[in-house]
Amino acid sequence: MNASARLPKSVAPQVITYDIDTAGGQSGSPVWHYEAGRRTAVGIHTNGSSLGNSATRLTPALVAILNRWRAMGP
Q1: Among 16, 20, 29, 74, which one is least packed by beta carbons within 10 Å?
Q2: How high is the pLDDT of residue 25?
């Protein structure tokens, strides 16, 4: 697994922005918060640009939607 670590540039209610390099095809990858030996997904990488990269933040409302979709099955 390749990983980069850096503090976010900003955290807004719906979006996390960061200066970690990404490449095409990484959209949909998790953005992790790592603390005290525990890794927690906090976002889904969605955008990359020369100005910075961003993720859709995993809010309780979004997690509920994802869980409903998962319950629907394949």
Answers
A1: 74
A2: 81
* Cα–Cα distance, 20 to 48 (Å, whole number): 9
* Dihedral of the alpha carbons of 30, 26, 5, 36, in degrees to the nearest 10: 20
Alpha-helix runs per DSSP H in 1-74: 60-72
Strands (E) located in 3-65: 10-11, 15-18, 30-35, 38-49, 52-57
Positive or negative, the CA dihedral 36, 42, 45, 48 is negative
| pLDDT digits 0-9 by tens, 7-53 | 899 999 999 999 887 878 888 899 999 989 999 999 999 988 877 79
Q: Which whole-number Å values give the CA distances from 56 to 20, 36, 73, in the listed order?
A: 15, 24, 23
Q: Which structure tokens are listed for 2?
A: 């390749």
